[in-house]
Amino acid sequence: MKDLSLYIHIPFCKQKCYYCDFLSFSNEEDTVSIYFDALNREINNTPNTKDEYLVKTIFIGGGTPTYVHFKYIIKVIETIKNNFSVDPEAEISIESNPGTCNIDSLYAYKNIGINRLSIGLQCWQNNLLKNIGRIHTHEEFVNSYINAKQVGFTNINIDLIFGLPNQSISHWMETLYEVCKLEPTHLSCYSLKLEEGTVLYKSNLSNQFTIDEELDRHMYYYSIEYLNNSGYYQYEISNFAKPNMECNHNLVYWELKPYIGLGLGAHSYFEGYRYSNEENIKQYIHKIQNGDTINTAKMLLSVEDMKAEFIFLGLRKIHGIYDKFYRRMFNSSFFDDYEKEINQLVKEDYIIITDGNLKLSKKGLDFANFVFMSFLND
Amino acid sequence: MTLSKQERTRNFSIIAHIDHGKSTLADRLIQKTGLLTEREMSNQVLDNMDLERERGITIKLQAVRLVYKANDGEEYFFNLIDTPGHVDFTYEVSRSLAACEGALLIVDAAQGIEAQTMANVYLALENELEIIPIINKIDLPSANPEMVINEIEDIIGIEAQGAPLISAKEGINIEEVLETIVKKVPAPLNKDHLPLKALIFDSYYDQYRGVVASIRIKEGKINKGMKVKMMATNKVYEIDEVGVFANTLLPINELISGDVGYISASIKNVKDTRVGDTITEALNPTDEALPGYKKIIPMVYSGIYPADGSKYDDLREALDKLQLNDASLMFEPETSIALGFGFRCGFLGLLHMEIIQERLEREYNLDLVTTAPSVIYNVTKTNGEEIQVDNPANLPPTVEVSHMEEPIVNAHIMAPSQYVGVIMDLCQERRGEYITMNYIEDTRVVLEYDLPLNEIIYDFFDALKSRTKGYASFDYEVKEYRRSDLVKLDILLNGEMVDALSFIVHRSKAYNRGRSITEKLKEVIPRQMFEIPVQAIVGGKVIARETIRAMRKDVLAKCYGGDISRKRKLLEKQKEGKKRMRQVGNVEVPQEAFMAVLKLDDK
């Protein structure tokens, strides 16, 4: 049996955060029930892989999946179990926001097999939270966290963002300090990027808030050092975990392993094809009701594409990539395929080679795009 | 009594300011004479290039022959010769006018006469044409025909009472225009018995015929098989075809004195049929060529480089093709350390330059980097040698330069009188020398200035337009070379000189220019891994400096829920952008940086 991962997209939120450009909506409560009907139908219609693939990870993301009633989530997991072979040990994650789950719903998630909870906190300071459109305080976050622990979740991630408007280095230090005290198993620390179309982007068109790159890097380096000292090791550009508590689902993306995305706008990489689902929610529902396909932009990756992706996705991992795995996939060595690029990058101290392994240097971590770009085909 | 061919021929042009309705009237005349059916008429018959249509101006001239049955019962041939409507093409206009006996002067009933119209009226008067005023746009609520008629009489000094009051757009009084042409435009004289003397007033390259030259027969006759000589180049050709301009080229047996038509003679290059040249019969030549021939000299030079160095040959091919139809376009290969292989191109003026650039980009799909335009400077070296410099990079080192001269133009600016102050300020800023000012009526003035050409080739016209809310019109001609205190301003990026960014500027302007160009470069050059000093240097001295701070990070933090395609696209876009940059030393410079000097706001 081959390994498979599933991503389930739940595009509903109580309120959209000002920095968020993910596919999600607020004030669409009336659509929830009909959306889940469509989603379950999509899952039922997915070609049968039961004998060939074993599902090792499931990630329920959004939006805020815990914002909808837990009965919908239970139904989705049941539908998945009916249509896929799911490993009893599979990592099943759900994203949540403080204040959107209570003891009852947490028990429900736990009972259906969800064993990893990812909570979006972003930062500790209530005034900063308000400024980025978050609808909770850090007190509410702590409350949610304690509830989750009490229900029996042992694998919990907390999402954080640095480089926010008016966020000082002290704010960031306080955030990390307070969060580490709770001893989650996993931390994601994202550097803020102003995405076009977001509230923050629009409100900043005249650049009143410039992202201070010096401060951003200061925060980033501090995170690495502080978290390392607190028992979290960095395993990807933005991700930190206690030993053996990495997010297996994320590793799937970076290691070019197959995954099927289900739900609105979800992305898949399956049997060599990359494709994505319809992004318009009305169309998504309508097409499923009519039995039309919702897959768009289907593209078969060439060997060259795959090689490039193997490298630029793999290099996101702190340990980097190993030639032996590359050889197993492509029957050639990346040291040969990208000799010129690798030599140049090593010379300029962007990457480090040791014994069949390639990884980003400290400088490479700051300029990862530049490194990745070098491996794209012309 | 039957009239002779000459007696039934009328050759005329239309003189008008842009937007005063020249093309619309031309269309109406063509429609009314019934030569073409409505269906045959493209939107505006005389403007046949998209680019012109978009800009609302006519660049290449073209003639058309109309057949008109007049009220007297006779059938007349009208040769309407179109003229380009821009200051860059004054010479071509004058040659077109030389092919006519009369000119219709179209004046907007609401706006009155403009400077550019005046310039062409003077050209028409020089060519001794009968000028026939026509007041257009009388349908506009703001039309004031009486005032405009008085203005024409006051300024030009020709009778304008009784001028046809028309609306070309609404088709009002077009018949009157046709009858006026019959009555007022003088018929050409019959000089059939003299040796051939024909004026070339336009030419273009046709894939099948070779060069097709538009000609006016002044004396004699021309027919197929005749051996003719171009008097400027002494080249001899045998005529393949003669004809007239109906809605297409219409071959006929012969053209006689007074006729306007075309010839083809398997000529390979428009340069061999120079506008203004005289065609005569090789075996029976005329004594003297027609007066007024000038070899066209480009006034504005700029380097044109392919954005992608591998497209150099494509660029050469495209320029070759454009030159087939544009004898005033000149180019020769040049190299730049910053930009690689390209061409130094000479243009009649800024508009001509813009048109060529746009055509290269649009019709030939080329991505170009253009350097700031330059004029030709006369440089006297300390050893007494005199050279001409059209590329700032070729200016000898300061120590070898004794002195320099720059071209000066004589300019007329016409505007409502409330703008006199701002126009004077502008001309002052551009080192203009005030000559005189005339009120042409209570509220309108003509200002005459001598201006250095290098002060007007950048953005003078734009500045003039914006400061006068579009009411000023402007016309110039090159007057002379004058000695001037000029310096070369160089730009250093990270300590390395960028040859393509150098320009020549008056010493009094160097500091401000240096400051604004360094500021602009700081804006357009993206931050890189290291700090980049941007310096402006005159004679080895730094006069302005900016610093482009180093980039501290370039990394996508998030993974977008497995959306690898998006990530890949972002990286591809970034890589594409990087590829389009020019490597200057170790600095990557985007294309727009080389044009930055063009877009400096002088204020």
Automatic annotation (TrEMBL), chain B:
It catalyses: GTP + H2O = GDP + phosphate + H(+). It holds the Pfam family GTP_EFTU_D2. The keyword Isomerase does not apply. GO terms for biological process: positive regulation of translation. GO terms for molecular function: GTP binding; GTPase activity; ribosome binding; translation elongation factor activity. It is a peripheral membrane protein. Keywords: Cell membrane, Elongation factor, GTP-binding, Hydrolase, Membrane, Nucleotide-binding, Protein biosynthesis. Its EC number is 3.6.5.n1. GO terms for cellular component: plasma membrane. Belongs to the TRAFAC class translation factor GTPase superfamily. Classic translation factor GTPase family. LepA subfamily. Belongs to the GTP-binding elongation factor family. LepA subfamily. PANTHER family: TRANSLATION FACTOR GUF1 HOMOLOG, CHLOROPLASTIC (PTHR43512:SF4), TRANSLATION FACTOR GUF1-RELATED (PTHR43512). This is Elongation factor 4.
